[in-house]
Every structure is written in structure tokens, then in C-alpha cells.
Amino acid sequence: MNDRYSISAGAWLPERLQQLFTCVGVADQLEEALPIFRKRKAPELFIVPGSIVSRIAANETQSVKVELRTPCLVDKVWLGVGSSVAANAYIVGKLLAGELPQEIEHAFNAFHVSLFPKDEEVQITCECAGKGSCIHLAIFYFAINEKLENDPQFLLGFRGRDRHEFMADIRTARRALAPAADSNKRVLPAVDQSSLPTSPREGENFWSQGKAISELSFTIRADELPGQILRRHDPIPLAENIPGLEQVLEEAYNHVANRAQAFGLGLMKSAIGQTR
Ligand SMILES: [Zn+2]
What are phi and psi of 197, to 5 degrees? Predict the structure, then answer.
């Protein structure tokens, strides 16, 4: 299939989609389908677990049903992937930004499955009953490609997991990963309210340190996503010349955050001049 038909050559999801549709032979119809796809209103996609369905206009009065089917991934895989992804701040950051980074595939591969279905896992059909491919499937291909561009996380639902449930699983797993931080929360006895002034005017010693200061409750914990700052701002100009700079910086921020937490908790005498 020629790259000039790809809406976003280079991105992993469009490339995988192109590969899937190449297997059913849409390549011959793409040249004819592209201007039709661009001219018409994009066909609506109905996405449910295991199926993407659409209706493509066949002529002025009729349309045909096209469908892409694949098996859903089981709950055990989703929970396992959620746990492993939770430990990767880079992937979590991308997911929170609405993206679907290619690195997430490694987490699925560890369970011997892939998020993007493989060629042998899909059925792509058109009810026009033409042999092989047809122009309707080529238009369907462009519609899914556009959807991947605008909202790649629809793939989670297509493979069987609601994206909000998936993110909730990851949040739960992240909380489980930080038991040390939670255990540092100091639980102190309740303060006798009657001994506290009800307003500054009534408190003779309001501006001086009272005994309540020693009973303040506080928690010190490292930023869970220290690398987020890299994604909130414009790309670093130097990054073009230094491959992997952002990843190095993200690891450094993570390290600093953990060191600051340790320092704040009194686990280190100094936050400066000590190695990991
Ligand atoms: Zn057809």
C-alpha cells in the first residue's frame, strides 16, 4: 500500500491499520476511495467491544454495512496490563493526555496478546458481497484511520475494556505501589477543641506557638508523575539533537522527587551530595 494514502504515516496505529486492511486487499481501491472519503461526510463508526460497524453509501439511495470484528481480551489480561502500566510514569502520562503510546503494546505482549489485533484475529467484511475488497472497505479504512488520529483510545473499548475502567484499574494499582508513602501519614490523637480559641480576638496567645503546633498532621510524598512537566510545556529545543533526552530528564525528575521525599521524612541527613 502506498504511503501517500496514509493520513499519518509514521504513527504506529495507522501503520498497523494499514497492514490489516492490506491483507484484505484494499490497496487497489484506495486511489478511487480517497477523494470520495474527503468529499463526503465521514461515515459514522459504531464501536462496541469486538466490533466496529459502519454504513457506507453505495449510491444515492442505498448503503452497505461494513464491519471489522475481533475477539475481546479477557479481564485477566486487562488487570495484569493495568498493574504493569501503573509502574510506568511515561505510559500513564500519555494515557492521561488521551494518547495511546506504542510502549503500551509491550505490556500486552507480556501476556502473549496485542492491543492492536493481529491480521489473523480480524474479520473485515462488506455486505456488497464483492469478492475480495471493494471501495466501501477502502472508505471504511479511511474512516477508522481518522478515528485513530483523533481518539486512539477507542481501541481500548474495541478490545473489550471501557477506557474509564482501565484508567481506574491503573489508579488503583498506582495506589498499591505506594504503601510506604501512605504509611508515613502520621495519625495523631484528636485535639481537645475546647482548648482552642474560637477566633483570633479571643485567643490571647493566638500569634505565639501553642502546644497544638506539635500535633499538626502532615504527609510527605513524592510527585507520582514528575515527568508531567515535560509534557505540559513546549518541546525542549535541545531534544532534537539529543535522542532520549526527555526520558533521561523524566528519570532524573523521578529520582529528585523520591530523594526529596526521603529527605522530608528524615530518612536522609542531606538531600545533596548523596548517591542513590
Ligand atoms: Zn462493498
Answer: -70, 145
| Model pLDDT, residue 199 | 57
CB 5 within 8 A of CB 33: no
Name residues whose C-beta falls within 8 Å of residue 94's C-beta, 6 or more positions apart in sequence: 100, 101, 103, 104, 231
From ligand 1's centre to the CA of 72, what distance in Å? 25
Ligand 1 centre from 80 Cα, in Å?
Answer: 39
Distance CA 79, CA 170 (A): 8
Cα 160 to middle of ligand 1, angstroms:
27
Q: Which residue has the cell 487497489?
A: 28
- Measure 2 CA to ligand 1 centroid, in angstroms: 21
- Asked whether 21 and 137 are in contact (CB, 8 A), the reply is yes
Cut 0.85: pTM above it: no
Mean pLDDT of 54-67: 91
Confidence band (pLDDT; 50, 70, 90) for 8?
A: very low
Task: Please state, in angstroms and rounded to a whole number, the distance separating the CA atoms of residues 63 and 88.
Answer: 45
CA of 228 to the centre of ligand 1 (A): 45
